[in-house]
Amino acid sequence: MNKSVLITGTSSGIGQATALEMKKRGWTVYATARNQQDLDRLSEQGLIPVKMDMSDSASIAEGAKFVLEACNQNLYALVNNAGYGQPGALEDLTVESMRKQFDVNVIGLQHLTNQILPAMIQQGQGRVVHISSVVGRIALPFMGIYSASKFAVEALADVQRIELNGTGVKISLVEPGPIITQFSNNAVKSSEHELPTSPSRFTALYQQEFAKRKASTRNKPFALPPQAVAQKIAHALCSPHPRRRYQVTFPAHAGTLLRRFAPYTLLDYVFGKALTHRLPPTP
Fold it and tell me: pTM (2 decimals)?
């Protein structure tokens, strides 16, 4: 039986790797992107392109309707991968930047899921995979609003997994650590203008970190290619007994253990020390 899957955010990175992996396995893949150039490339790769902007509820509804009609309401799986990370100390973030982070990573994700679920429930089977993050289990300084959005995704999955009991629809979370993609660089490029150049207690740190990321071509320690995440997603989609959570990379496993066993005082001390080392010396 040929199965179909809708994957969001497939223009690069984890989304693209997952789309190609599922196509290789013989699935019909509906792949979303925002830009026409990316949509054309997806079509050339043998995927079915779907224009969708996760910050636009009308775009989400229109894209979901197109997919469901194209597969005669028989969509088997949804992979919620699209998202981005807004860096910055919480005190420096504007209301607009915080709202946009949640609009895309949380509200858009759940809105799309709600558009797709009725068809899955009607057919008595389906899979939903949310791409979370290690920072959805253990929050990092200067990634607070992104961490908060991933904490929210974790909660949504945990609740809806129970609410879907008996429907045949299963939900899994995939929690990557550092992955070799353009995620961090894209976050810097798209969000640099969102952070204050002055006055802020952390202006010098922002400037230092932005310059470092632009100049560096090295990957973070323990980083794995996006195909490693794609393999975990494929297991969640294909296994008769998918796991509730999948960790990818050593830091993801370590973060889960720290969250479970380390006291808050220890975590505060470790992250506080790391912050002190990152701050530029005071003139």
Answer: 0.91
CATH class of the domain whose range is 4-278: alpha beta
Tell me if 27 sits within 8 A of 2, measured CB to CB: yes
> For 198-227, what is each residue's pLDDT tens digit?
678 888 888 887 777 766 656 778 899 999
Q: How far apart are CA 169 and CA 153, in angstroms?
A: 17
Sheet holding 48-51, edge to edge: 48-51, 28-33, 4-7, 77-80, 126-131, 169-176, 245-248
Distance CA 109, CA 8 (A): 9
End-to-end Cα distance, the chain: 67
Give yes or no: 206 in active site: no
Dist CA 120 CA 169 (whole Å): 7
Q: For the chain, which residues make up each domain, given as ranges?
A: 4-278
CB 134 within 8 A of CB 255: yes
| Set 30, 76, 146, 246: catalytic member | 146
pLDDT digits (tens, 9 = 90+) for 112-153: 999 999 999 999 999 999 999 999 999 999 999 999 999 999
